[in-house]
Amino acid sequence: MGEESEARIGERVYTFLRGEGEEGREMCVTIPEVLDCQYGMYVWPCAVVLAQYLWCHRKDLPNKRVLEVGAGVSLPGVLAAKCGAKVILSDSAELPQCLENCRRSCNWNNITGVPVVGLTWGEISPELLDLPPIDIILGSDVFYEPKDFEDILLTVRFLMERTPRAEFWTTYQVRSADWSIEALLCKWNLKCTGVPLKTFGADRECLAGSELPGRHTVQMMIITLDREAAGCTA
Ligand SMILES: C[S@@+](CC[C@H](N)C(=O)[O-])C[C@H]1O[C@@H](n2cnc3c(N)ncnc32)[C@H](O)[C@@H]1O
């Protein structure tokens, strides 16, 4: 990236506070944001909410194999890596700037060993086939274009075929009451559980020192394989 582009990069710091008795007072994640109107160039409110969920479950993360899809600037994935998960970041194979954002976010947080791969939802590509088994898939604000909903679930379902106990942790912004993934979940033998924001301290306008969640209506759900419907015996 040239000097001119670098000048368009700003910085936001997200601060997650530790509880009493834990070592250190806080964990900070610094996210470089590009001054550009493309979707994957900056942090979306959903990302702060998903990061808060990860922070709340940080004790479960060490050594978990985590893949973030549609990562953009990757706040949740970077936090997961800082909490000890083995993270892979991904965004559309057709958006190299977004893949560059994933790499830059790792660099700015001194994280090494996090592969960044181009994964376009719905495509069974060599990159998807090459992934190791994944325990947790992260997706923050990926359900924002109804035309993509089935492709996202197809990618998730493909990964769960290999690892039936994998979970898809995802946050979405309520943009239209008419949008639903219910029929698609049924079609792909998936099921979903809503996670109330108050159960992980995200029912606030300000999270991790950021006012980004504000008054946006963000919700969290966990999608898993409906093992009975999928005829899973493992
Ligand atoms: C609304 S942004 C959310 C970015 C980030 N997850 C966040 O919450 O801050 C949607 C992200 O999905 C990515 N994306 C869009 N279409 C995609 C596709 N077909 N396959 C994979 N990623 C895609 C975009 O590049 C962008 O990073």
From TrEMBL:
The keyword Nucleus does not apply. This is Methyltransferase-like 23. It comes from Xenopus tropicalis (Western clawed frog). It comes from the Eukaryota. One of its GO terms (biological process) is methylation. Belongs to the methyltransferase superfamily. METTL23 family. GO terms for cellular component: cytoplasm; nucleus. The keyword Magnesium does not apply. Pfam families: Methyltransf_16. Keywords: Methyltransferase, S-adenosyl-L-methionine, Transferase. The lineage of its organism: Eukaryota, Metazoa, Chordata, Craniata, Vertebrata.
